[in-house]
Amino acid sequence: MYRKISALCAFICLALVVQSCVISRDYNSHWSRIEFLDIPSTDSTLTMEHEPAWYEAEYEGHDAVYLERKFSEEHVGDYTSWKYYTVSKLRYVVLNPEADWATTFRVGVDDEDQKLDSVYMTITSPDGKTSHFGKSDLFVEQSGDGTTQYKFAYPDVRKGSMIEEGYIVRTTSGERRTIREHFFPIKTGVPAEKVVYKYIYPARWGLRFKRIAADAVTPSDLSFDKESNARILEIQGNNMTAWEDEAWSPYQLDVIPYLEFSVASAETRYMYLEMPVEWSKLMKGMRVDQDTYFDMREDDDLAEIARKASKDAENDFQKVDAINNWVQQNIEIGDCNNCEYDDVVRRGRGGMFTVLEITMALLDHVDVESSMCMIHPANEGYFDNNYVTFTELIPPGVVAYTESDTLVVFPFIKDLPAGLLPPVWQERPAVLINLGDRAHFGRSPLGAVSENTEEEEYNLTIDEDGLISVKEKKYFRGLSAYLMRSALREAKESEMEKFMTELLTYEEGDVKLGEYSIENLDDYRRPLEITLNYTIDNLVTVTPEEVIFQTGGLFSPSSERKIKVETDDRVNPIRIYSDEEVIKRITINHPPEWTLDTKLKPVTFNNQFGELNATYTSEPGRFTAEQRRLLKKASEPKEMIDELMKITSRRSQLSIPTLIFAVNGN
């Protein structure tokens, strides 16, 4: 019997092996292993169904194509001894030898309880030469985080090379980590001709499957291996196209087929698991500890912290923002087992829920009521109300109730202002945990209406020889500022110059970055400012009669160097999750004997995706422009991509490919 994983992916062939059988067995009975890895002999060769040129044409634009992608997970043993195996096998054709992932074997294991049991690696070049490698050929690297990384760089990888690799990782402890949650993407960013996933587990265990869409079908029956006393879940996918990471698209889990399930009941010697079947039962123990919270409300030190942090606040919103900012700046999430709240405040480090309770107590000291909340984020896919598991609700935050609004704050997420909810957490299913009450379901708010604006100022000076000097200033506010601050904090010092180069508007010409500066990085209440100084050559052609300035994307609404959109090959529907405004103010200083010859008219344009406005002025030695692009929250089919491009691309009315100046006297 075959069932579809999701109606959203009806065009994809997904085979579910489904037979039903329930067998019970004594705990001390042993079950044997089912899934193994067939290691090819050293004189075997790999063969392709087609010539390499066929794969290049069929899968043009991809780094590789999986001819076979197999992955299995298996629990083996008896009640007193338990082992867990993961078995992986890949066979693929390399189409881009420059892609590191396609030319390097990698696998990591946990030093505490995992072992790499078996490995084989085979590569066949387009001319038919085959080389075999094994575990002894791996480069071993200790990562310093308790894991060991095994790597191998395949030799002489060329376009059309075929690689087959397989490995087994054996786990001997850590049942809670390996048993609970399981996720397998049936579609990835690499096309695959065949995908197979298996999950093998003791017959007495129970699984719970998540629906990936409202009308999706989940596997309900599983095959049974009598000899091993094991149930087998097997899913197959054939001719899987690649998921395309396109600009302005839905989250990945909204458009790809995947399997997500959890073990709802299991038992080993060291673990017993029985997950509730209803959210109300799962949430029964989720509540703020009243005794501890009462102590925090009576704590004079916390009251003084709250008073000092909010001393300049003029309303409830500013109080919430002040408390949120104080916690972000003074307490971080970290190990602090069994720490009392005053220890957490003193050390500046504590468990996530303790930090949230402290935040709620501080808000209480400034007379703002609050609750704890846990949200199901949009990038985690469809929320299946029947899939009862803690991992569906992340991350925890604090809901503050002001006189005019409901705000959500995440005091452990640095730089995220009060009430500014990234789209991934807006209007999502959420659990609210009130003081002394049991948790109950609700929805997260839309979030405070915060600016999501980027302002850009350009001051260009073009000398008589056509060399351009640019001072570019960018001002980020709201969500744009939060995302940019997060990216800047993640960038290493050695990578900062490259990061700044990527921010440059120009896509053409010989660009040389000079000095740059960042202001207000640590103060999210003020706009984040980035100043870039650079020069550009090879964009201006100077002749005795005229000067041609190729603008190189200066007047484009979006940098096409960063956002590639092929309208003819659009795969995903269009999804814009929040409004976004970009304002450009451009001043071009030029020799006074040049006169602008290009005729420019004011721009006013709008469609369902947004608005465009522009004004231009020209005077001796100077040209100025002010452009505004408003991109609106939208959900449209992919066929509307041409309309979106009228707002966001060089095809828009804001785009000016060249400016032509006449040289006076000619």
Describe this structure as you would to a colleague.
This protein has about 675 residues and is α+β, with helices and mostly antiparallel strands. It is built from twelve helices and 37 strands. The strands form eight sheets. Strands 1, 2, 3, 5, 6, 9, 11, 13 and 14 form a nine-stranded mixed sheet that branches. Strand 5 and strand 6 (about 130-135) form a beta hairpin. It is globular, with a radius of gyration of 30 Å.
Number of helices: 12
Q: Which spans have pLDDT < 50 for at least 5 consecutive residues?
A: 1-30
Q: Please give the largest β-sheet.
A: 9 strands, mixed
Number of strands: 37
- Gap between N and C termini, in Å? 82 Å
Helix content: 10-25%
Question: What layout of secondary structure does this protein have?
Answer:
Blueprint: E1 13-17, H1 52-58, E2 64-77, E3 82-94, H2 100-103, E4 104-110, E5 114-124, E6 130-134, E7 139-142, E8 147-153, E9 162-171, H3 175-179, E10 181-185, E11 192-202, E12 206-209, E13 223-225, E14 230-240, E15 258-268, E16 271-274, H4 279-282, H5 290-297, H6 300-309, H7 316-330, E17 332-333, H8 341-347, E18 349-350, H9 352-365, E19 369-375, E20 396-401, E21 406-409, E22 429-433, E23 440-443, E24 453-462, E25 468-476, H10 478-490, H11 496-503, E26 510-519, E27 528-537, E28 540-542, E29 546-550, E30 574-576, E31 580-589, E32 594-596, E33 603-607, E34 610-619, E35 622-631, E36 634-636, H12 641-648, E37 658-663
